[in-house]
Amino acid sequence: MISLFMLRHGTTAWNLEKRVQGHTDIPLLPDTRQELSQLRLASRYRDLAWYCSPLTRTRQTAQAIGLVATPEPALIEMAWGSWEGKTIEGLRRAAPQQMAREEARGRFMTPEGGECPQQVIDRLLSWLATLQPKTDIGVVTHKGVIRAALAEACRWDMVERCPVKPDWGRLLEFSWSAEQGLCFVQCNLPLEGD
Predict the structure, then answer these.
(1) Which of the residues 22, 74, 82, 91 has the least number of beta carbons within 10 Å of its own beta carbon?
(2) Residue range 8-32, pLDDT digits in tens
């Protein structure tokens, strides 16, 4: 069994504007990097094997909190295709019926030229299956990847509200084994400690 701790990257300009980022490589805001650099990561998490998405915002988050994280392509944000750079509200206003149809597909919602959450789940699970058992890990990744993990672990269809309410500045804990799959353990664990 592997304990998996997931952390979303820090704030970018597009986060503040509520724009879909996807694979668009947006850096952290300078203030965010400064705030993160002042955190004292709890010793419980410092010794984990850390991984991050290859995108700048996750690498900067890991570096700012003092982690040496290995870039892992399986942790990259969902590809949002033609929706990248736009807001969900703007997309709903521009094409309300099309968006309602897509959003009703939950795990299979697929932006034009992008991928669906189920594809994110599949690549995450494929990667987890390659890891050594009993090696606890931490990942700095994206909201879309964390939501995909929650969908799998909580058997959430992604149509209804998420069954847990993550605080995006805190860790979520999952467990993984080939026998049990991905299981949700707890959320909103503070990064800081001793």
Answers:
(1) 82
(2) 999 999 999 999 999 999 999 999 9
**Whole-angstrom Cα distance, residue 17 to residue 76?**
21
Neighbour count for residue 102 (Cβ, 10 Å): 18
Distances from the Cα of 4 to the Cα of 24, 50, 69, 91, angstroms: 26, 10, 14, 34
Going by C-alpha positions, the residue among 187, 114, 194, 184 that lies closest to residue 152 is: 184
Cβ atoms within 10 Å of 134's Cβ, excluding its own:
9
Instruction: Give the pTM.
Output: 0.95
Task: Report in angstroms the alpha-carbon separations of 91 from 61, 113, 147, 193.
Answer: 29, 15, 20, 41
Which candidate, 184, 186, 174, places its Cα nearest to that of 154? 184
| Cα–Cα distance list, 23 to 52, 58, 152 (Å) | 14, 12, 22
Q: Which fold has domain 2-189?
A: Rossmann fold (3.40.50)
Torsion of Cα atoms, 67 then 41 then 136 then 175, to 10°: -120
Show the tokens assigned to 178.
């080939």
